[in-house]
Amino acid sequence: MIRALIPYQQQGRLLEGLNRFSSRLNAQSRQVIKEEVIRLTSQTDAPADNSAFAQFPVKRFSHFGIEMTLDKVGTEILKRETSRYMEQYTVGVFESITNSAHYQGLVQRQLREKIIKAFAVQTQSYQDIQFNNDLSVTPNFSVATPAYQNGRTVAVVALSATQLTIACTRSPKFTSVTDIPVTFPHIAGLCSATEVIHFDYVRVEFNAASQRHHAVLQLAEQDKQWQAVFQRYLNRVMLRLPLERDLEIERSMQALDRDRIVQSAPWLPVLMKKDGDRLAPRMVLLTPVNTQRNPAYRSKQLLPGKAALQRILKELNAFNEAFVLRLSITQSDNSSVSLCTTVRQLEKQNLLANFVQLGLEHNSLELWQYRLATISRDSQETARILQDMSHQDHSDILSMGHILYMRSINEALGPLHLLSKPEKAKLPRQYIDNDSHYPLHFVMNDDIDRRKEPRFRIETDAQIKVSLMNSYAATVRDFSLGGIQLQIHDCHDAILPPEVKVSIVDFKLKSQRYKVLDYNPHTGVLRLLAITTDSTSKVL
Fold first, then answer.
1. Are the CB atoms for 487 and 478 separated by under 8 Å?
2. How far apart are the C-alpha atoms of 539 and 141, rounded to whole Å?
3. Helical ranges in 409-491 per DSSP H
4. What is the C-alpha separation between 60 and 245, in angstroms, rounded?
5. Tens digit of pLDDT for each residue in 372-386?
6. What's the whole-model pTM score?
7. Could you say which of 102, 228, 491, 534 has the lowest number of CB atoms within 10 Å?
8. Do both 312 and 411 map to the same domain?
9. In terms of domains, do 269 and 417 share one?
């Protein structure tokens, strides 16, 4: 309200402006506001100084004949507030300049605007920020010039294609301001030792962070041919060296934004590698979000068998996206049969309703969305440089040229219901998913790794009790506080109960309850999770 009344006061119409609020404010409140408006619009000759909280180099200048000591943010506030008060230096202008909270608010607002402007396009396209002519790095070498303290060596804090910034302990004084000869050391890919390149003096600024004076030099006209050389050098080292401070902040913010996208995505990324003329999965990236959104994320059967997966990949190469349906059927002899196909394959053969009905009858229908993306050579090279990986030591990772993104969509679709019962039809044998699976390596954070506790490889005899009358002999393969892996002998049951009791004489373990995680009737390998209570945890 006070800001709205300032123009009325400047035009001598303050009472008219106050009367507009007479129905909402009492006389006492209007009087307080009137006095505050008059105070803020009163002219003053007090000098302003924001050096106590300024974040940029401070300069002294005169404004309406009054001495000012302000940095660039303070100068911007001065211009804006002076314009608001109709080009007059008033108490309101003075208080805005010397108010630290007002200053910090403007700095934060400008930073947000800069970030939004920098990433409005890049975040959507996932493309690296293109700095172009603004590209400037912070190199790790020093230079010298006879024009400054008889050739004293100074550190380079910023290098661009056209400018060089050096750090000086005191405000530098050069013997000449044009064609300053600067001697460079040997820099691979840039210049040989004692190479002399000429620069012109531009300006000097005091850096509050480093407490040093930064002298900015511009490439001289006689050595303009070095601009292309500097540009090629910067393009090659921009990923190996930190950028100039503001540019590095932009690049770091984009990297953090990309990490946030990966951490929040429901997709399971599977890195694929060429195996002859086929693609084979190798690694799966797990995050807290995608493990919650996708069932059986650590199972060997996360992906279909080799034959079914290759059919899906063939479809992905043509359409880049596929919707995969999987189900499991328990036959009369208690054996399990897995089926896998895609929506396109089912629609082509007019069997979609039959497949869905079969999955609903056996309560085992799984729906997955797959997408295939290609990793460009530039992206692979960028990742190699950023992670400091050599081709010799990390050839397997660097050879992965595709990513298969997959996610479960059962929850997103909700319960499925058939509007009408389809006619009976036989499903093709090619839908049977009984082929072996590709081995997968799971990469995850420690907080979601259920195997982070020590595991011991021990071979000893064990007894597994599956019911009141039935038990099986087994051999312990590995053991940990939270679980156990066993090899069952002579077990013909295709399905085990959800819980079993395990006894191991050598461990003095008797009838310890375990939850069945995974059982393979073909190999006899049984994986169990300990059901611990206060009493049983002491035993384990």
1. no
2. 62
3. 410-413
4. 25
5. 999 888 877 777 777
6. 0.58
7. 534
8. yes
9. yes
